[in-house]
Amino acid sequence: LATRDQQWADVQEDETHSSAALSWVSSANTADTDFPIQNLPFGVFQKDGTARIGIGIGDQILDLRWAYQKGMLSSLGGLAPLCAEATLKPLMEKGRAAARQVRRLAFQLLHAGSAQQERVRAGLVSMQEAEMMLPVEIGDFTDFYTSVHHARRGGKIARPSSPELFPNFKNLPIAYHGRASTVVPSGTLCRRPWGQFLTGSNDLSHMAPTQKLDFELEVGCYVGPGNHHGQPIALVDTPQHIFGVCLVNDWSARDIQRWESQPLGPFLSKSFMTSVSPWVVTLDALQPFQVPPADRGDDAPRLSPYLDSPEHRLKGGLDITLQVLLRTSRMREDGRDAAVVTETRYANQFWTSFQMLAHHSSNGCNLRTGDLLSSGTVSDSEQSRAGCLFELTWDGTTPIPLPNGEQLTYLSDGDEVVFRGRCSRDGYRSIGFGTCSGLVIPALSQYPGARA
Amino acid sequence: LATRDQQWADVQEDETHSSAALSWVSSANTADTDFPIQNLPFGVFQKDGTARIGIGIGDQILDLRWAYQKGMLSSLGGLAPLCAEATLKPLMEKGRAAARQVRRLAFQLLHAGSAQQERVRAGLVSMQEAEMMLPVEIGDFTDFYTSVHHARRGGKIARPSSPELFPNFKNLPIAYHGRASTVVPSGTLCRRPWGQFLTGSNDLSHMAPTQKLDFELEVGCYVGPGNHHGQPIALVDTPQHIFGVCLVNDWSARDIQRWESQPLGPFLSKSFMTSVSPWVVTLDALQPFQVPPADRGDDAPRLSPYLDSPEHRLKGGLDITLQVLLRTSRMREDGRDAAVVTETRYANQFWTSFQMLAHHSSNGCNLRTGDLLSSGTVSDSEQSRAGCLFELTWDGTTPIPLPNGEQLTYLSDGDEVVFRGRCSRDGYRSIGFGTCSGLVIPALSQYPGARA
């Protein structure tokens, strides 16, 4: 078992984490890029009508199919053809060591001293010209509820006369199954959904476009190798089963959610759409930013053994700073940039991504390559650092002033929501996640299912 | 729009519904077969190591790949090669008219007057020798909560001091997303899952094999052609989007469910396994058994227009009689048959399969070919006709006596649970669903994730 010192020695010896490393792709060396050579995230993009795997570097993408066809991946042996597939699934299946080999080879091809610079340059595609797609077909999408601050504040708003937290919260990472068919890549327009909700104090619901459209700022991870049905994954093995991490916007309709959720949880209030950032940041790239999980507090019950390990206590947390930016249609018309409406930290979650995976499989449920596990809303202890408008505006009752004087409650048609995430640590190069964005468009004018 | 009389005229004119029709496969002509020539359900089975589509007839399967290779499906044109695939997906995608064409051709090949009897006989495989598989890869599995009797009785047991029904129940078909990766074909062993639950009256949970393992008797339907993301399906169009119907056992761990379900609904208490009967009975075969939906009662709110249509009022219900049989290990040792522990009717559900589909897509959520929508527990108004042990035994407090004197509360290791379903109507041949069965095996002896 690695001690904390050994862990850091490993990270420090790894040339791909060296803050001194530079790329010959100049945009990868700017201070504000999310994709310096220390990151090298995986994604799938479309070019010439075909989907390809790429690695993000600065504002460019290294086309791995092209690199494979040019024979540049031959040192990867049997892994090389997997890099020429149209989805990340075959590579994800091979596990963490495989992803590490590909990332290291990309590092060699792209670092400033590479002898192959001139050859490789022809395989770069500008991010501006590429259409990013889902990295993998998602078999099952699971959404957790791992922020104690989100749970507490949500409880205060929704159930003011009851205890803030349900008694189970600190015993297990609560979750529900989400809808896989409506997970879409960043940039997909978000159509305001219709649904049933209450308008008065009586129990008469009506069907209308939601009046409480919200975002949920989340961090997702993709399952690499899966487990067999019936065989739980031990917490210490979970890092071998996570391919990488992305940002997730679990768009929510709060009025529909409130009406439909008893007793089986949210359904149509979430299933209309979930956006993901298209770049998958590998666990290897995140190694320098693994930190101890957040303090559980004095009143927390002892952790069940399947959710605890000495290694996890050292580095179960991921220190990711998250931001939500918003641009209204008026801001867009006036040429204004998007405004930051909240900023929060993933390291403060009560449960970690590794605990989610261990819990999910603890009943024998099999996870499959490409499954997406998301954190639920990432909210901090202060209300102004919450991860959704339900909390930030106290269910729409206390608007947030925007820089141009507009008042933000829930989302309006024309609002554009942009998530960003970034990892920073003294002595290391900061890396980021790119964006997870979506523009809200008006509801269908027709009643659902009505014929023209 | 078809009136009720026109509808019955159509059904009566259809030779595949004629009670006089017989098959040259003699086992299809017995009174108790589930698979007379009036049924002809679709399934996928394994033979010689390859998966094939088959049609059930008596105790035999017509191998459609074989029939395709022998040129017997040429009248199907472009549909013929789809019958030689390893999954039903390509055929399901083509919609109800395609399934109808294949079923009609099978009727011609298999009916007693068929000139091709001798040729076709070589394409029969005994059901006893075939291993049945999932008919299609299930993208998303959704489980509803559509029995008012189940909801009421469950409310009484779980929340004795609150109103039995939540106020939303009669306004919309409540549902939650289930786990697709653990949907398995009938016959798969059900391993008792570990999980967290409370044992005392305090809030100290512990991790142990569930002590309240239950079945849930449900009726599922498979989506045929899907809808585009953002485009709801009108209730009147839903019959074109349902390929067919099967039985579903949504195995449940009631102690885990009780502890984990607030506020987001059941998760690990359900995701360890869900069994489906492998034969998919088409909507065409079910036509004679379409009945008006159950009476909503005087106190029910007016139906939202997207959940109502004149046609649906005529034939939204499906009249399926459902049975649960159970055989303990002692009964097996003593050579006893399984005993019927409950019998109930799908026609008494408060919401129908068609309303489920319309509601599911009403927010624009896209359903995809092969998605499974299940009804939730089918329970009748009498406690003895409930669809799960939670109700039948009042959460394990009032055991059911079995014929050999054993007392049934929750499921024990070695118990075998068998679901059956059957449609009957005067003037029509009864058709059935085959079985959805599973044998309970002991929990893993090791703590979840512990290493040997």
Please tag this protein with its features.
eight-stranded mixed sheet, alpha+beta, 452 residues, homodimer, 25% strand
Structure characterization notes:
The structure is a homodimer of 452-residue chains. Chain A is an alpha+beta fold. In chain A, 20% of the residues lie in helices and 25% in strands. Chain A is built from 13 helices and 26 strands. The first copy, chain A, has helices spanning 4-13, 64-69, 89-93, 96-110, 117-121, 148-158, 254-260, 268-271, 283-286, 310-315, 329-333, 353-361, 389-392; strands at residues 42-47, 50-57, 60-63, 124-126, 131-133, 141-144, 175-177, 183-185, 190-191, 194-198, 205-209, 213-214, 217-223, 242-249, 252-253, 274-276, 281-282, 290-291, 317-318, 321-327, 339-345, 372-374, 400-401, 407-408, 416-423, 431-441. In chain A, strands 6, 7, 8, 13, 14, 16, 17 and 22 form an 8-stranded mixed beta sheet that branches. In chain A, a hairpin with a 7-residue loop joins strand 25 (416-423) and strand 26 (431-441). The mean pLDDT of chain A is 95. At the A-B interface, strand 7, strand 10, strand 11, helix 7 and helix 12 of A face strand 7, strand 10, strand 11, helix 7 and helix 8 of B.
- Average pLDDT level of chain A: 95
Low-confidence stretches of chain A: none
Largest interface, with counts of residues having CB < 8 Å to the other chain, equals: A-B, 72 and 73 residues
Supply Rg of chain A. 22 Å
* Biggest beta sheet attributes of chain A: 8 strands, mixed
Q: Please, how many helices of chain A?
A: 13
Regarding quaternary structure, what we see is homodimer
Helix content of chain A: 10-25%
Which term fits the overall shape of chain A?
globular
Termini Cα gap of chain A:
65 Å
Percentage of residues in DSSP E strands of chain A: 25-35%
> Which structural category do the helix and sheet elements of chain A fall into?
alpha+beta
Beta-strand segment tally of chain A: 26
